Amino acid sequence: MKYIEKLASIRQEMKEKAVDGYIIPSSDPHISEYLPDRYKCIAWTSGFTGSAGTLVITADFAGLWTDSRYFVQANEQLEGTGFELVKLQVQGRPEYATWLAKNLKKGDTVAFDGNLAAVAVAQAVQAELLPLGIEVNGHLDLLDPIWESRPALPAEKAYLIDESTTGQSTTSKIEAVKARLADKRIDSHLVSSLDDLAWLLNIRGNDVHCNPVVLGFFLIQPDKNTLFIGDGKLSAENIQALNKAGVEVESYEKAFDAVANISDGRILLDPKKTCFSIYDSVKDSVDLVEDMNPSTILKAVKNSVEASHTRHAMVKDGVALTKFFKWVEEEVASGELSEISIAEHLQGLRAASEGFVDISFDTIAGYKEHGALPHYKATETSNSTLKPEGLLLVDSGGQYKDGTTDITRVISLGNIQDEERADYTLVLKGTIEGSMAIFPKGTRGYSIDAITRRPLWETLRNYGHGTGHGVGFFLNVHEGPQVFNMAAVDIMIEEGMITSIEPGLYREGKYGIRIENLVLTQAVESNYFGEFMNFETLTICYIATDLVDKSLLEEKHISWLNNYNAWVYEQLSSHLSPEEQAWLKKKTAAI
Q1: Percent of the chain's residues with pLDDT above 90
Q2: Helix (H) or strand (E) holding 331
Q3: Is the pTM of this model over 0.85?
Q4: Which member of 27, 30, 101, 259 has the lowest number of beta carbons within 10 Å of its beta carbon?
């Protein structure tokens, strides 16, 4: 069925059910960013494959609301589908609700599948539409009746990981969450988000591409703790270990009824991580508390074991990347390298490392103009052949049993232009400024964002995405609650958090530049003026210096760059062949 035909079928369903506007979020019952195939509803409906967006369909309009990271991609993928791109003004804001309010009339009905909409999204839609007399139905799935051969839920096995890897037992993690619940006099708590579930129960799986998670819910109640997971996904040994940790195991589908059957007390649900269907099933007799999952902040603060393991994973990742960039440099003149082939080669190099599980997201290998698309993924149609000229941006990462990596580097393949050199140097200057930041305890991410952007702002340059996101420990490469962006997110940057620093600059149709390292927040000193923190850089991969215009850097930036590259050589050289050592020695030479 073509996309235009699917759109017609949805409109027919809407007509039969008296629906005037239908919303399709990019989500699943766990409000995940990356989705199992069964819930890739936007891709199935419209052909758009980005990880953030919302479709809205009316009788005479069909649009995709998404942010600047996906504008070019969306325009290409939506062509001929019947859907139009609507550019979000503010990333993540439900601006489509305002559009519906302006374009529908009193008495009309807007619907969505409550299994796919977060509570916060559903509430935003209701707040916009209900005062205008527009009805909202949050329990209508119009896709399932027309989705032929819809993928089933994943059936791969899940598994437990040992305390020697995580640094903390399942029992102690549950106790830590319960202690926070007790402080708020909360009796029950449902964990819907898959990364919170994975961290809390020391469980991993293969249910979502690139994310080592398993579909499930975890319900904490006064008298028991229950994991709801697909039948057959855990071995008898794993079930026994969970039972020993005080966790009962039930079928996945029973989670919805378990929440609906709670008749008293106070229950905590995270409105950003719980689907509306579950939220709406809570009895009126239950006091519903909307707040962040306690596990979210606990998970974000890595313990010393997790930090140590991550440093080890970074060495393996750095070795793979060194081999990769050497290979690209030596083979590019052959004319046989393409964006797809180099991504496959890099994955193969990572896969040769001990403890490698998967890549942590689809590799972004953007040559020349494709580098200007922040979330680009090469297809057979777009796949560019590399030549010994222009810029190559590679944003990639690995999932290892001892850590998660995420790194972006830009290299010149030849014929460097002055504009490219200046842009590269200013982005690098931003990366260095963010990495060198010293800040008082209590600082929020928007302050780090501003520090990092300053070198670009000073030259009237900017970028449309955030400066940094949290990263999990052998978990999701995008992990909250902390972010480094311009939004006033009221989450302080705490000691032990791992976050990316990744400023960029994009010239559409020409090239893109982004330089990304992961950093660990650490304490510096406590004095009369308070407690201060800074960052330990974790990523170990040389930063290209042949693109640097030294005249745009101060001595402190040059010193940081030289020290960083020297440290990279020191960390990796013993894991490389003599030929690779010699190559890296040149790449890390001081400027």
Answers
A1: 94
A2: helix 304-331
A3: yes
A4: 101
Could you tell me the two tokens for 434? 């963010």
Q: Between the CA of residue 512 and those of 335, 365, 415, 427, what are the distances in Å? A: 22, 11, 16, 10
User: Among candidates 276, 272, 278, which has minimal Cα distance to 196?
Assistant: 272
pLDDT tens digits along 368-406: 999 998 888 898 989 999 999 999 999 999 999 999 999
Residue 555: what residue type?
A: E
Q: Which spans in 392-464 are helix H? A: 418-436, 445-457
Domains of the chain with CATH codes = 3-137 (3.40.350.10), 159-299 (3.40.350.10), 320-564 (3.90.230.10)
Task: Give the CA distances from residue 423 to residues 112, 462, 552, in Å, rounded to whole numbers and listed in that order.
Answer: 44, 11, 10
E strands present in 353-510 = 356-359, 364-367, 391-396, 398-400, 403-404, 407-412, 439-440, 468-470, 479-484, 498-501, 504-507
170: left (phi over 0), alpha (psi -120 to 50) or beta: alpha
> Could you give the 3-state DSSP secondary structure of residue 22?
strand
Q: Are 403 and 378 in contact (CB under 8 A)?
A: no
